[in-house]
Inverse folding.
């Protein structure tokens, strides 16, 4: 039975296996359960979502032999995980002795069930009945290999008879590392980042901000103190974006980029309002950072460029070193040009962004849209050469 991407695996019919499945589901584990015949009876949503790189759960062939052609063939469609036949080999070597202990079939009988690419492995094994075994499994993500820690734990009934085996997986780092990352990162933002694992075009509000006078500040403060101030700025600005429901983009120097895609909000108006509210929150946050750092508020002045992107291309980029969101499109470049013109700690917002606000959002922000006047970017006294070249006709107002 193929369980599609939009549905969770049903609980196993066996009440003991079902009880284990509920516990694994509720604790958000990466886990599988196989029955005594080594047929897949359950896989947690969390693990299926990971195999889909966080974009969606992968389909799984429930009831099929764990190492059979259907399971191995289906896994080749996964974005990450055991998505090549040869990656299943170490898993069989780790648990094959348990399989031989569970079944009355000899190795030849088991060999006939497994995927042809894996059949020769049983020649290396002999039956062993253990309570548990631990091993490392190898998977791939976008072609790059990674390792995960794994355990196979036997499930027995009151008489001691084996009812199945549960597989538990976790990244091959200690819980101290995982815990530290989990404590620091916002779960909602991680989910929003996962939602753009598959890059696509989407309307979004765009925020660019940069610290003015950073060169002077860096020469005034000691290197250690300047680093501390910079870290506080980044933490404060990122928190404002997260609190507003946006996506934090790349950090370049003292600058920040953030996106507020419409799919994360109830409407375009709400996305635009979140963008403007974030700029205001960051301004307030800089005052707190200055006070905490023993600086004058005028030492930490941010300038903002806010814009609307109707067709920008948003996605996340995951490498061995980082996990970040980025976006491409003319409107992203235009947002950067707007920000560069907002000298003096101003907030310049484009007409396409402001006019996304409905009456309710404008009232909440205290913006009277009918009284706003716009100026073409090229006509601003502060217009940069790049702004005049790349975005001369963009109409902006000061908020």
């Amino acid at each position: 039975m193929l369980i599609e991407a939009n549905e969770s695996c049903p609980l196993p019919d066996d009440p003991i296996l079902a009880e284990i499945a509920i516990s694994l589901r509720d604790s958000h584990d990466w886990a599988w359960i196989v029955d005594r015949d080594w047929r897949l009876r359950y896989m947690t949503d969390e693990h299926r979502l990971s195999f889909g790189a966080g974009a969606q759960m992968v389909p799984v062939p429930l009831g099929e032999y764990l190492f059979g052609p259907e399971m191995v063939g289906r896994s080749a469609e996964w974005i990450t995980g055991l998505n090549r036949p040869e990656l299943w080999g170490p898993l069989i070597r780790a648990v094959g002795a348990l399989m031989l202990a569970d079944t009355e079939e000899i190795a030849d009988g088991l060999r006939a069930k497994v995927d042809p690419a894996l059949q020769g492995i049983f020649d290396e094994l002999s039956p062993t009945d253990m309570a548990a075994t631990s091993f490392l499994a190898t998977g791939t993500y976008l072609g790059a290999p990674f390792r995960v820690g794994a355990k196979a734990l036997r499930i027995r009934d009151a008489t001691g008879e084996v009812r199945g085996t549960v597989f538990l997986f976790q990244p091959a780092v200690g819980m101290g590392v995982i815990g530290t990352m989990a404590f620091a990162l916002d779960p909602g933002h991680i989910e929003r980042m996962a939602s753009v694992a598959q890059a696509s075009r989407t309307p979004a509000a765009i925020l660019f901000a940069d610290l003015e006078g950073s060169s002077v500040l860096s020469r005034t403060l000691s290197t250690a103190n300047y680093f501390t101030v910079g870290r506080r700025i980044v933490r404060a600005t990122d928190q404002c974006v997260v609190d507003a429901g946006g996506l934090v983009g790349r950090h370049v120097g003292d600058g920040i980029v953030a996106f507020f895609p419409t799919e994360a909000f109830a409407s375009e108006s709400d996305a635009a309002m979140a963008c403007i509210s974030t700029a205001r929150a960051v301004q307030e946050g800089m005052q707190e950072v200055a006070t905490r750092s023993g600086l004058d508020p005028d030492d930490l002045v941010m300038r903002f460029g806010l814009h609307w992107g109707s067709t920008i291309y948003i996605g996340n980029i995951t490498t061995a070193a980082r996990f970040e969101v980025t976006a491409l499109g003319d409107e992203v470049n235009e947002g950067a040009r707007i920000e560069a013109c907002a000298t003096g700690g101003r907030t310049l917002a484009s007409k396409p962004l402001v006019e996304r606000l409905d009456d309710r959002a404008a009232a909440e922000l205290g913006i009277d849209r009918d009284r706003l006047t716009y100026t073409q970017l090229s006509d601003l006294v502060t217009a940069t050469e790049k702004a005049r070249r790349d975005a001369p006709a963009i109409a902006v107002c000061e908020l």
Summary: The two ends are 57 Å apart (CA to CA). The first strand starts at residue 2 and ends at 3. Residues 268-292 form the longest helix (25 residues).
